[in-house]
Amino acid sequence: MGEVILTMKGIDKSFPGVHALDHVELEVKKGEVHALMGENGAGKSTLMKVLTGIYKKDEGTITYEGKEVEFTNPKEAQEAGVMIVHQELNMLSHLTVAQNIFIGREKMSGKIINDSQMNKAARELFDKLNIDIDPTEQMGNLTVGKQQMCEIAKAISHESKVIVFDEPTAALTESEIEELFKIIRDLREKQLGIVYISHRMDEIKVITNRVTVMRDGGYVGTIDTETSTKEDIINMMVGRVIYEDPKTASNVPSGAPVVLEVKDLNAGKMVKNVSFKLHKGEILGFSGLMGAGRTETARAIFGADPIDSGEIFINGKKVNIKSPSDAVQNGIGYLSEDRKRFGIAVEKTVAENSTMASLDHFMKGIFIDKKKEADVAKKYVEQLKTKTPSVEQLVVNLSGGNQQKVVIAKWLVRDCEILIFDEPTRGIDVGAKSEIYHLMNELVKMGKSIIMISSEMTEILRMSDRVVVMCEGRKTGEMSIEEASQETIMHAATRREG
Amino acid sequence: MEKLKNNAFIKKVGFNRLVLFVVLLLMYGIFAILSPTFLSYNRILSALNYAYFLGFLALGVTFVIATGGIDFSIGPVMFCAALISGYLLTQNGLPLILCLLISILVGTLFGCLNGYLVAYWNLPSFITSMASMMLAKGIGSVFTKTQSVSWPQAVQENGEFRKLVKIMTSDGTQIPTGLVVLIIASVICAVILNKTKAGRYILCIGSNKEAVRLSGVNVKKWEMLAYVICGTLAGMAAIIFVGAYSTVQPGLGDTYNNEAIAGCVMGGTAMSGGTASIGGTFIGVLIIALLQEGILAMGFQKDWQYVITGLIVLVAVYANVRSHKRKN
Questions:
Q1: Using CA atoms, how far apart are residues B226 and B71, in angstroms rounded to an integer?
Q2: Nearest to B208 among A329, A345, A360 (CB)
Q3: Which of A255, A423, A475, B15 is deepest in the core (most CB within 10 A)?
Q4: 8 Å CB contact of B215 and A324
Q5: Distance linking the first and last C-alpha atoms of chain A
Q6: Which residues on A lie below 8 Å from B218 (Cβ)?
Q7: Distance from C-alpha of A181 to C-alpha of A71, rounded to nearest angstrom
Q8: How far is the C-alpha of B220 from the C-alpha of B222, rounded, in Å?
Q9: Are the Cβ atoms of A324 and B207 closer than 8 angstroms?
Q10: Under an 8 A CB cutoff, do B207 and A345 touch?
Q11: A248: distance to nearest CA of chain B, Å?
Q12: Residue A251 backbone phi and psi in degrees, to 5
């Protein structure tokens, strides 16, 4: 490791209602791979966005190559030599590799784009990096791994001095990861400073020199990778904070019948051999890091995405769910994590959204019984304390928490026996949050069964009777609430093989 | 203005529709001032004749636009239906009632085709309806061996269907029954759109199809139904068209797409789907019909009519997109 190239000191950033970064520190040296770790929502991405000028910091200083800087947009950062390789690749699949690498700064002969010159430049670049890709190939024909290499090559062609990798291995195969590491080591040799964001503990040990850990927007500490253990890092990530009243014992009687059983479910790339049981009156927490395949599992069970193989039993009877319509017929309701896209019809009223899953019960001959519809909608507005002037209000005019309550009302009106709540409190204020917790507890008391997917550890520990942990599409842990702790869950959530 | 908007009566009718209605009256007044002949009963009847079939087309396409789709085939489908059924009536001597049913059936089949391809194969409605527009033109032309077809006059045998459009009393008074027919059709469409499950799902699909699907609704079926309704109404429009104008030529009909869609959009139906107004479509169609008659009455040529209609459509679409964007 050489001299310091980048220092972020006392970085503070607030959004309305959220203190996203609380005096965070980060120091990157030349010839170092510096891991940035933390749970979902710890503030890693926000910090990187402050670095590259996407967000403006409220306080603190950024020193780059000995001078204080403040980039106002990513382009400025790029020109100065600070570049992010994003998790989602920003590639145009119809263009060639070379065209992608030189996009926005095409090599020209007069007014005409000179493709052969770009191909030549790209080839030289690849040779320098020992990457074996044909620059004239169409980007869309490459594997995700190769595309990532191109993105890296692009970063280097900008003569970057600091490169940030945001979960670069999330979509890569084992051998592609090896190749990526070779390139990263090579960059380290060339005295670049590298920030490496990843959830994978094993990789951290293999590739990084130092680790900076963040938690809840705050800076926890920086340690040398070589002298620390996986446990040290996990402990830093979860902290020793005592959260409010986690559940200490399951509320489900030991003999409760199994209402839903999933056996060896496979669906796409993100659901691999998932099996679990859900008991009557149980809240089954699904924990894991971002991209662990929890939502995909839920969608597969609900029939929203096709299943490749596996069996689903409801009350002991095998069911064949091919569409959400089949799932609803079988008494399953799904509250999506992405309310706006999958939960509500925004230009429709509260009443219309509330009855969307059960309109058949509101028919009088061929006509919709609007009075009954309004009455039932009103009942749930009162029961869920939804803040809306009337049930005729368009849902678009409601706040996030109240929109969520409308979606919950939709499934309560349908009277589903099995409810899948996917991130039920995401983007919701504290008051509405505890109301939703209260409601879930009421529902299980009434004998409903709930699968709760949550990325918030406190939520999992507070609500669940049992916890299933997933990592990379596999179930990597299943524990009773007595066994579950931040440490045990985090261990399972970062385990690479199930 | 805010106070006006909150008035109970205005709220019930809808502020935008009221504005539209005022526009309609203003236009009528302007044309009447600029062209003295415009106030004659015959002029009004002529404008109404244009509004009848256009109204049926626009009512139908309102359902499709409500789902967030579009149908550019309605005009040619209307002509195709009129050509096939008219040919069977005049050349093959099939009974009138059967021919009228065949006309509706032809429209319905095109609606099924469009709806199936869009809903079940996920083809974009823009391209799909373009293709079926060409199909409709071609099939109509092939069926009649590129001959135009003239439906019987009111006094001739089999001409009684024209009573749907106009009744001539013994003393020569003309009664515009077509207006009554169009109003009845509009009321039925409004009931379907606002009071039935089909209408509810069609509107919800336009608002957020995926959310409706994830509510356990068979969205494909309902989305297809919107196109089927549209096609059926185009088949009915064919009957109304020949009731007013008798003669249909092969290979035409696409200008009516644009005018029907324009009427619909003017009426406040969002191009992005989710919100639709049958009452708005009704008034929008009257405006388009009045416009075309007014421009002719003022002595402008047909090409000027296109220019002016085009500009008005642009303004209407701009206002439409803006008002819906503001809401979100």
A1: 10
A2: A345
A3: A475
A4: yes
A5: 36
A6: 323, 325
A7: 29
A8: 6
A9: no
A10: yes
A11: 34
A12: -90, 0
Q: What is the DSSP string of B27-57?
A: HHHHHHHH-GGGGSHHHHHHHHHHHHHHHHH
Q: Which of A238, A266, A294 is the last residue of a domain?
A: A238
Q: What is the CA radius of gyration of chain A?
A: 25
The domain boundary, picked from A206, A238, A270, lies at: A238
SS3 at position A257: coil
Tell me the HSE value of B263 on the side-chain side, using a 13 A CA sphere.
33
| Residue A452 near residue A286, CB atoms below 8 Å | yes
Gap between the Cα atoms of A415 and A402, Å rounded:
20
- The first and second tokens of residue B75, run together, are 């005009």
Asked whether the beta carbons of residue A334 and residue B327 sit closer than 8 angstroms, the reply is no
Q: What is the pLDDT along chain A (498 residues), one digit of tens a residue?
A: 789 999 999 999 987 767 889 999 999 999 999 999 887 668 888 899 999 998 999 999 999 999 999 999 988 998 899 998 876 667 888 899 999 998 888 888 888 999 999 999 999 999 888 888 999 999 888 887 788 888 888 888 888 899 999 888 776 777 778 888 988 998 999 899 999 998 777 888 889 999 999 988 899 999 999 998 888 888 888 765 444 567 888 888 888 999 999 999 999 988 999 999 999 999 999 998 877 899 999 999 999 999 999 999 999 999 999 999 999 999 999 998 888 888 999 889 999 999 999 999 999 999 999 999 999 999 999 998 888 889 999 998 887 788 889 999 999 999 999 999 999 987 776 667 778 898 999 999 999 999 999 988 888 999 999 999 998 899 999 999 999 988 899 889 887 654
Contact between A348 and B203 using a beta-carbon 8 Å cutoff: yes
| Residue B264: inside a domain | yes
B9 occurs within a structural domain = no
Contact A347 B274 (CB under 8 A): yes
**Tokens 């690849």, residue located:** A126
Chain A residues touching chain B at CB-CB below 8 Å: 302, 304, 323-325, 327-329, 334, 336, 341-348, 352, 356-357, 359-360, 363, 366-368, 370, 394, 396, 410, 414
Helices (H), ranges, A67-114: 74-80, 97-101
Residue range(s) defining the domain that contains residue A168: 4-238
**Of A302, A323, A368, Cβ closest to residue B196:** A368
Query: A264 CA to chain B: closest CA distance, Å?
Result: 23
Q: Which residues of chain B are within 8 Å of residue A302 when distances are taken between CB atoms?
A: 214
Q: Strand pairing partners for B66?
A: none
Assign residue A431 the CATH number of its domain. Answer: 3.40.50.300
- CATH (domain of B115): 1.10.3470
CA distance B273 to chain A (A): 10
Q: Do A359 and B200 touch (CB under 8 A)?
A: yes
